[in-house]
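[job 0412] stage=complex_fold ligand=aspartic acid status=START
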Amino acid sequence: MKRIISIILIGITSILTATADEGMWLPSLISQRIGDMQAKGFKLSAEDIYSINQASLKDAVVLFGRGCSAELISAEGLLLTNHHCGYAQIQKHSSVEHDYLKDGFWAMNRSEELPNEGLTVSFLERMEDVTSVILKGYEPTMTEDERINLVRHNSNELIKSITEGEKSLRATVEALYYGNQYFLFIYREYSDIRLVGAPPSSIGKFGGETDNWMWPRHTGDFSLFRIYADKDNNPAEYSADNVPFKPKKYFKLSTAGVKEGDFTFIYGFPGYTQEYIHSEGVRYVSEISDPSKVALRTIRLDIFNKHMSQSQAVRIQYSTKKARVANAWKKWQGETAGIRKMKTVKTNQEYEKRFIEWAKGSEYEGIVEHIDSLYRQLEMHHFIVDVFSESVQTVEIARLSAQVSGQDKDALRHILESFYKDYYMPIDKECFIAVMTEFGKMIPSDYHPDYYKEQIQKYGNAAIWADSLFAESVFADIEKMKQVGDNYKDVFLHDPASQFYLNMQNWALPHLNKARSINRELQLSYRTYMRGQMDFAEDRTVYYPDANLTLRVSYGHIKGYSPSDGIYYHPSSTLTGIIEKDNPNIFDYNIPQELRDIYAAKDFGRWVNENGEVPVCFIATNHTTGGNSGSPVINANGDLIGINFDRVWEGTMSDIDFDPDFCRNISLDVRYVLFIIEKIGKASYLFDEMTFTE
Ligand code: ARG
Ligand code: ASP
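[job 0412] stage=complex_fold status=DONE, emitting structure tokens
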């Protein structure tokens, strides 16, 4: 889930009946859904999905790092996730001599598996409703701040009582339905996680930014890791003596294939949705926040692209940065388009009108109007925070100046080393000029910071301002940086990049604080409004809590869609599509020669569909979001058929408004994973530890 979660704008969503396959369900309450799941084809029981008494599917699913999902696929701790989830680890092990990002990496035996400091995976041991414990001592007369403090205190006590003396246990208390309910989640965390395999990026990231968030898709987005444990199967820090972890449960891999209509079940950790949000929140996101953030990112991406096309070295330096900027940039555009198309603002306004009528005389009277007025108060503050984060905070040397402030020498050396490895000053400077010019236009002049006005007045424009700032800042020049002596703290403080950052931050901070306090009030109001929505119900009877990076079940089925008049997209893609896109002159579509040769020779082995083609990706109606990347895609028998990694362009508004006609998740067919392991990785020895079903 490489995206910035808006910390400010909270929301509940739109107002639909829990249609079709919408919903991210809590596993411990899945007995409420199991009837529907079984009616749609699922053959297992609620206990098979989640149980605290016996091994269940939940024991084969993990939170990978703090933003992706992954699943166990062998009795020896073998773990499958996305290439983009393991990207940082693959990159860390890469050097000019061993460019694993470019060439791929395959351990040929256990001793070649590579440890990854800092990477953890978490198993959910159990979850439970702890609302009464968390709200113990609550009085309705309390202010929101008092309630927040109480919740924090009670949560900490509860967490302490569980994790005290248990080094590998991690517990969190999460608010559901805006704090109408609280759940405790207890995780067992493993920290010796080794890289086993990854395809070359020309397969694992095939299609790059061009195909990202799109269907038809052909990205081989997977990587393999292995969990290690001590000799008693307990979590342990990395040690050469550790042994492969023996999971309670792992997935069998189904090679039987998928077809339209098949039941699919995603089990993973979706990060953040706002499915019950007020029309004003939707309007802000789709008409103000998304478009202005997109505009600022477009400017930067154009500059990135120009320089990256001129130099191979710069392309490598900025590839991760670009991927990060481009991912949300593209998603926000799809989200805006989807919300407009669905007329979510209007639909929600009409719902709110009916709600207001219904609420008259009840405890919910006035709540919709109050939220509306809070959003109006919030808007300018929130906008300033958004623009600040997409302009000032994107200036690399400004961010660096903030990052190094107060660091000791060792930490400093570390930070600077990794910064300059991937820094190209002309890009940073050009971006500064462009975004700070745009900043002046986006922020109404009444709100311009004095510092900004002074600089523009002094230099005439952002370009001449940048000439001076980048010429004088030690952060902009590694040679100058090397000459900074023991008085570095002082030098840094007076550096023009620090001054720029600090002055702009001083201006933004009051707006951030104001936005936070309005948000606390919104949170409180949403708690009431959410309850009201559930009471009001209209024709809707089931609700699911917004995603919050806790384990969820979403179920649906394999299904194509019609993105616009006259077009129908089939639900699966094959290697033939890769060959059709293949173009040695287009970076995103330049596949390894080996893959061309395999295709020409039709050397596909057993990994083919009924037409003799190698399947690559498929789409389905499961409700997913950022964080679901790497999640297992499971068939009616509980076997693994794929790995989730993305959504289709026309359905990216599903975080706010799920449309069963357009919202599709994109998964990698597990047979393509096996094909690549065997034919490109030459690592089919790994099949020995897997279990296959037909
Ligand atoms: N869109 C997917 C997600 O949101 C995949 C992102 C990684 N791939 C990329 N080309 N940036 O995370
Ligand atoms: N690509 C996303 C992830 O990394 C998944 C999504 O947003 O659908 O989690």
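DSSP finds 23 helices and 20 strands in the chain.
[job 0412] exit 0
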